[in-house]
Write a structure and sequence with these properties.
Layout (H helix, E strand, L loop, with lengths): L5 E2 L11 H8 L5 H7 L15 E4 L6 E4 L25 H7 L5 H8 L30 E4 L4 E5 L7 E2 L11 H8 L5 H7 L15 E4 L6 E4 L25 H7 L5 H8 L30 E4 L4 E5 L1
Parallel strand pairs: 1-10, 5-6
Antiparallel strand pairs: 2-3, 4-5, 7-8, 9-10
Helix pairs in contact: 3-4, 7-8
């Protein structure tokens, strides 16, 4: 430890010869450009690099792209550092705006390349399988996508849970399931459907009651997607990462952490114990054996909490 990206590799851990190999294999679920730049220091700096690519800003109402660069440089860099390593990074603003295919690309590009916080968009090139937007003439009681929250809202008079007026033009769907399956196809289906549904006799959204991997560095366990106020095994704070896969039960979730013993993971996940679980590795994902305490290897290993790779040095 000392130089940027250096840490002792804990045994057993998979080691890779290069950052690229580590990111491609060990962090295959993370965006490759995110992983490689977060694993590399800027020139003459102790801070990690940025990809200089573009990412969709799903903040409700924004409908634009932001640049993955140092927020201290101001727009078009994101207001705060991008930490969602699941999100796709596009090579340029035009490709990124192409993802927002329900608004005019030129409007999106202009909105993304400026510091203007107003909403862009003058037309819809695709309604992603839904019917035409409700507009100002009345409500339709159909559902539309709320990209900032990973859920769907109902085109109805504001007041009850999940109700809002659908802004034109917007795709409308007959059911929450249709809206989540088609309009929110990049979000976990269970996340979307429960976040779009109110709890019984409540104005708060429901929870999936499924399980999600807690990638917090060092935890290596699963947490339950339920109300944090209920305490463990619910997550400490509400789960908001709608890209993350929700598993039906704790055993399936722990199966994703296949480098530690499933039984240890289940026991660690089903309790409020904050210590680290894991007693063995069922797979090293293509890398060589861990470095341990006998010395350093100068190879790279996965830091699952940050979506990057560290060097065993």
């Amino acid at each position: 430890p000392g130089p940027f990206g250096c840490d002792k590799a804990p045994p057993p851990v998979a080691l890779y010869d290069t950052i690229e190999d580590c990111c491609r294999t060990g962090q295959s679920y993370a965006d490759f450009n995110f992983c490689t730049t977060r694993s590399t220091a800027q020139i003459n700096s102790t801070q990690h690099a940025f990809s200089e690519g573009w990412i969709v800003d799903w903040t409700s109402g924004n409908e634009k792209c932001v640049k993955d660069c140092d927020p201290n440089n101001g727009p078009p860099c994101s207001n705060s550092e991008i930490t969602d390593f699941h999100a796709k990074i596009y090579a340029n603003v035009n490709e990124c705006c192409g993802r927002l295919n329900w608004i005019d690309t030129g409007v999106c590009v202009a909105h993304s390349d400026s510091s203007n916080t107003g909403q862009g968009g003058s037309g819809s090139s695709s309604n992603e399988g839904g019917s035409s937007g409700g507009g100002s003439s009345g409500v339709t009681n159909k559902y539309f996508v709320d990209y900032g929250s990973g859920s769907c809202l109902k085109d109805c008079a504001p007041g009850p849970f999940g109700c809002d007026k659908a802004p034109p033009p917007v795709a409308l769907y007959d059911t929450i399931e249709d809206c989540c399956r088609t309009g929110q196809s990049y979000a976990d289906f269970n996340f979307c459907t429960t976040r779009s549904t109110a709890q019984i006799n409540s104005t708060q959204h429901a929870f999936s009651e499924g399980w999600i991997v807690d990638w917090t560095s060092g935890n290596e366990k699963c947490v339950k997607d339920c109300d944090p106020n209920n305490g463990p095994p619910c997550s400490n704070s509400e789960i908001t990462d709608f890209h993350a896969k929700i598993y039906a039960n704790v055993n399936e979730c722990c199966g994703r952490l296949n480098w530690i013993d499933t039984g240890v993971c289940v026991a660690h996940s089903d309790s409020s114990n904050t210590g680290q679980g894991g007693s063995g590795s069922s797979s090293n994902e293509g890398g060589s054996s861990g470095g341990g305490s006998s010395g350093v290897t100068n190879k790279y290993f996965v830091d699952y909490g940050s979506g990057s790779c560290l060097k065993d040095c």
